[in-house]
TrEMBL record:
Its EC number is 3.2.1.21. InterPro entries: GH, GH_1_N_CS, Glyco_hydro_1, Glyco_hydro_1_beta-glucosidase, TAT_signal. This is Beta-glucosidase. Belongs to the glycosyl hydrolase 1 family. Keywords: Carbohydrate metabolism, Cellulose degradation, Glycosidase, Hydrolase, Polysaccharide degradation. GO terms for molecular function: beta-glucosidase activity. Gene3D superfamilies: Glycosidases. It is an enzyme of class 3 (hydrolase). PANTHER family: GLYCOSYL HYDROLASE, LP05116P.
Length: 450
């Protein structure tokens, strides 16, 4: 039967890290300030019809100017860590060449401001805002972009290596490859399955090159990659083989190369079921030594968990759990337990796990501060995280997505994912019920029953 939570609070291990996450383009605004160059998201959002409400990442939550007050708010909530991303086009406005000192200075102030408030920085190097000139040169489907990323990463390591920050290379390579280059729902808006495949490999290569650059920089702290993973369940007795294939495309295509140095044979050539015969094309992307680079040892594996899917015998995705306002999100807290225990069982050499995103949008576009639905979502997922830890999963950190209502990519400002409400007219911040509750979780280092 279904798992039943115990009647008492479920404690987390001593030293467990509690945080909240954002990303640069989604919160910063000020897209032209201090020498920032254009990114693919500036270009994409400016195209008619791409974003649900016709909006852009300006001003978003105006965090570029309001960061100090936002850090005070994080401290008041008791957050132990803040995960943010560095905007590549602030640091290298054209995606190559020398650093833009004003861009670097912003992140230096942010990191110093966090440390002085006792909040640990967790820095994502790439959360989707590719400098536009690199896309003009071909973007992630082009191998040279991986080296550009490693050069950029080195600049950031040099600037911030003494901060003790935790590091993540690339946020969700699957999302960029599949909806950025495969279905055109995200920037840069390409719709080409060969580009999808090449974007997978070159982002993973970029990750590995950045890990190597990190080790060479002498930086302290740890480094990993943030993968959005999704348990898939067969919906009929004859769906096992199709489910395994979809699992390859959703999960093993990223876990296997990073943790084992191999690509899963059954997933290549079946990207979303669209290219049944592209194995030779994929193999041609993979040069000697690439898989050794991609599997360079990492210190943490970052998992981003939003929900599950069902798969039928023909490999079609099916609904098996209730959706949120985000129609792609099928909510099933037990899926988090399934995912964490599965990684632990299938990848015995995996490093410690961290959850760098987990969350849900408010039930409608207007949003609410009385967000009982989010509170319930977070509580049920944290119970599953505690359950997995109790069964031997080495989970060390957890970050809610998101700290603030923000620019939700193709949905613009019509989906509010924050534990803190942002009034986009006044930029006023108001912690929602879930933020108050999460503060209590952090203080207790335990998740309440119910
Ligand atoms: C995360 O992606 C992102 O890291 C974060 O920036 C984002 O704000 C958060 O989730 C909430 O969405 O356009 O119908 O094709 C989660 C994984 C993969 C979910 C791409 C949405 C696009 C669906 N995302 N997917 S669709």
């Amino acid at each position: 039967g279904p798992w039943e939570p115990p009647a008492d609070p479920m404690a987390f291990p001593d030293g467990f890290v509690w945080g909240a996450a954002t990303s640069a383009y989604q919160v910063e605004g000020s897209t032209k300030a201090d020498g920032r160059g254009p990114s693919i998201w500036d270009t994409f959002a400016a195209q008619p019809g791409r974003i649900a409400d016709g909006s852009t990442g300006d001003p978003a939550a105006d965090h570029y100017r309001r960061w100090a007050a936002d850090l005070d708010l994080m401290k008041a909530l008791g957050l132990g860590a803040y995960r943010f991303s560095v905007a590549w086009p602030r640091v290298q406005p054209t995606g190559s060449g020398k650093a833009n000192p004003k861009g670097v200075d912003f992140y230096r102030r942010l990191v110093d401001g966090l440390v002085s408030r006792g909040i640990h920085p967790a820095i994502t190097l790439y959360h989707w805002d590719l400098p536009q000139p690199l896309q003009d040169a071909g973007g992630w489907p082009v191998r040279a972009t991986a080296q550009r990323f490693a050069d950029y990463a080195s600049i950031v390591f040099d600037a911030l290596h003494d901060s003790g920050a935790r590091w993540l290379t690339i946020n969700e390579p699957k999302t960029t490859a599949s909806v950025g280059y495969g279905t055109s729902a995200h920037a840069p808006g390409a719709d080409d399955v060969e580009q999808y495949a090449a974007a997978v490999h070159h982002q993973l290569l970029a990750h590995g090159l950045a890990v190597q650059a990190f080790r060479a920089s002498g930086a302290t702290g740890d480094i990993g990659i943030a993968l959005n993973l999704m348990p898939v369940y067969p919906t009929t007795d004859d769906a096992a083989a199709a489910t395994r294939r979809v699992d390859g495309v959703e999960n093993r295509l990223y876990l296997d190369p990073v943790l084992r140095g191999t690509y899963p044979d059954d997933a290549i050539g079946d990207l979303a079921g669209q290219i049944p015969a592209s194995r030779p094309a994929f193999d041609a992307l993979v040069h000697d030594g690439d898989l050794a680079t991609i599997s360079a040892p990492i210190d943490v594996l970052a998992v981003q968990y939003y929900g599950v899917s069902g798969v039928d015998a023909s490999g079609q995705y099916q609904q098996v759990a209730p959706t949120s306002l985000a129609s792609w999100q099928q909510v099933r807290p037990e899926g988090l337990y399934d995912l964490l225990t599965r990684i632990t069982a299938d990848y015995p050499d995996a490093p410690p796990l961290v959850i760098t995103e987990n969350g849900i949008p408010d039930p409608d576009a207007q949003g609410t501060t009385d967000d009982g639905q989010r509170l319930d979502f977070l509580r049920r997922h944290l119970q599953q995280a505690a359950r997995a830890i109790g069964e031997g999963v080495d989970l060390r950190q957890y970050y809610v997505w998101s700290l603030l209502d923000n620019f939700e990519w193709a949905q613009g400002y019509t989906q509010r994912w924050g534990i803190v409400r942002v009034d986009f007219d006044t930029q006023r911040r108001t912690p929602k019920s879930s933020a108050q509750w999460y503060s209590g979780v952090i203080r207790a280092n335990a998740v309440s029953p119910g």
